Amino acid sequence: PSGDPGTPAVSIIVLNLDGGELLQRLLASLEAHRPQVPFEVIVVDHGSTDGSEQVVARHARQLPLRWLPRGRNYSFSESNNHAAAAARGQFLLFLNNDIELTQDVVTPMVRHFQDEGVGAVGIRLLEPVVDATGATRFVPHHEAVYFDAGLAADETQSYTYLPVEVASLRSGLGGPHTGPAVAAALAMCRKQDFDAVGGFSQAYVYGLEDVDLCWMIWTRLGKRVVSDTSIES
Question: Per DSSP, what are the bridge partners of residue 11?
Fold first, then answer.
């Protein structure tokens, strides 16, 4: 299935393997909180047998969807790079298939790129927690990635810096702050910048690809990585 929205501003890239139920919730939430900018959704499928394609076909009636079957599983980096090469948007939004949108996150994320000094944008990600009374509340799961200093396990006792995902380091600020990285569970960058740094490094199989990408955008291109905690999902 495919749609033709004209020239999209944003290409939303979703990787999938037997995630039909997750895709159903994600795409329904995207319909409910439709971006105010032209967009396309590229679903990269890794050989699903659970009816994922039928889920995408149903939602293609309402959304500009492109189904990109790969037949088998590939790494996070490889398949995102594959989709980015096929993307028509000026901006790339990498989006996990287990995300449910609670607002239009795409439009306010795009606005950050009016500043040419911004290279990547993430948001505050929430997760549901059921308390002792059975009530569900949402708590911060991710705001940014920072480097934490720890002693190296060698005789020099020099420091090594490891990336640490931060759930609510600056909770309550309600606005953008700058750091070294954001998670590609939901993150946006310019396609031009993504291409300029060579996309996601395929040296990683799964994990730290997003930190590496943000680091390259920051150090090679000299652009800031922004987490806007006023945008939540």
Answer: 40, 92
Cα 166 vs. chain centroid, distance in angstroms? Answer: 16
- Report how far Cα 226 is from the mean position of its chain's Cα atoms: 13
Side chain identity at residue 99, one-letter code? I
Strand pairing of 136-142 and 118-130? antiparallel
Does the pLDDT of residue 189 top 50, yes or no? yes
**Are 181 and 87 contacting, i.e. CB atoms less than 8 angstroms apart?**
no
Q: Which two tokens stand for residue 22?
A: 């997750």
pLDDT tens digits for range 84-128:
999 999 999 999 999 999 999 999 999 999 999 999 999 988 887
CB within 8 Å of 160: residues ≥ 6 apart: 149, 150, 151, 152
Q: Please report, as a single letter, which amino acid is at residue 35.
A: P
Closest CA to 101 of 8, 177, 160, 23: 23
- Return all residues near 100 (Cβ < 8 A) that are at least 6 apart: 25, 26, 29, 233
- Any idea what the Cα angle at residue 190 is, between residues 196 and 66, rounded to 5°? 110
